Amino acid sequence: MNIAILGYGKMGKMISQYVENETNDTIALIIDNTDDWKNKGAELKNCDVAIDFSEPAVAIDNIITCFKNNVPVVCGTTGWYDKLEYVRQMCEKYDGSLVYASNFSIGVNIFSEINKRLSKIMEKYAQYEVKVAETHHTAKLDKPSGTAITLANQIIENNATYSDWELTDDNGNTKKQHSIPVISYREGNEVGTHEITWQSAEDLISIKHKAFSRLGFVKGALLSAKWILDKKGVFTVNDVVNS
Question: DSSP letter at 47?
Answer without folding.
Answer: -
